[in-house]
Design goal:
The protein is mainly alpha-helical and 263 residues long. The chain is 61% helix and 7% strand. The strands form 3 sheets. A 3-stranded mixed sheet has the order 1-4-5, with no helix packed on it. The longest helix has 26 residues.
Amino acid sequence: MLKSPGPVALEAGPITIYWYGITLAIAFLAGLLITFKIAKKQGENPDKILNLAIFLLFGAIIGARLYFVMFNWGFYKFHLQEIFMTWHGGLSIHGAIIGGFITGAIYTKINKLPLLKYADLVSPGLILGQAIGRWGNFFNSEAFGVPTNLPWKLYIPVENRPENYMNYQYFHPTFLYESLWNITVFLLLFFIFRKKFEGKNGALFFLYLILYSLGRFVIESIRTDSIYMVAGIPIAQFVSIIFIITGILGLYFVKKYTNFAGH
C-alpha cells in the first residue's frame, strides 16, 4: 500500500518547503543533466543549452499553470490568489509541453538555431523529468485513479477524495503508472531511438509525442479528475490524440525530407 507523508517536507518558522517543489526541482535538474550529456556528445555549446533550459522552464511552468487554471476556472474565479500558489499543485503536463514548445520556437528563432534539432536534444531529458515530476502528485494526494484493492493501492485522505468516492479509501496510483511509463519511454528514446535516428532532426521529438501520449491516453481512462470533455472524451485524452496525430505527421515529413529509412 502507498500512502503520502503529506505535502509539506519542512517547516521552519515562516518558511515552508513543499515536496511538490522539491520534486519539480529534482525533475528539472535530472532532465538538464541528461540534455547536457546528449549535447556534449553532439558538440553543442553547453551555454546555449543552459540558456534554452532556463527559458523552457519558465515557459513550461507558465503554460502548465495557465492550462490548468483555464480548465478549472470555475474554482479559480472565486479564489484568484490560488492562481499563483503552484506549490498546492495544479500544473498540467500538456500545458507545460505546449508552453515549452512555444518558448523553444521563439528562442531558437531569435538565436537562429534549428528548432527540431534542439527539440530532439531535450526530449529524453523532458520525459525523464516528467517521470520524476509525477511524484509531486503522490505527495499532494492528487491525480489518482478509480478505487482498487490491488496490493499497490494508494491511500487517499478524505479531504482529497471526489464526492462520489467518499466511502472508498484506496485508489489506483495513476501517478505511479505514468511515472513508470515515462521511464520506459525515456529508456527507449535515450538508448535506442537516439542512436537509430541520429541526424534525423525532429524524429526523437515526434516519437516522444507519440509514445508519451499513448501511455497518457490509456492511463487517463481510469483517472477520477477528468472533468472537461471534448467529443465525449476527457480533455487530456483529446489532447493526447492531437499529440499522437502531430507526432505521426511529423515522422512522415521527417521520413520524406531526410531519407529516414536509409539511415
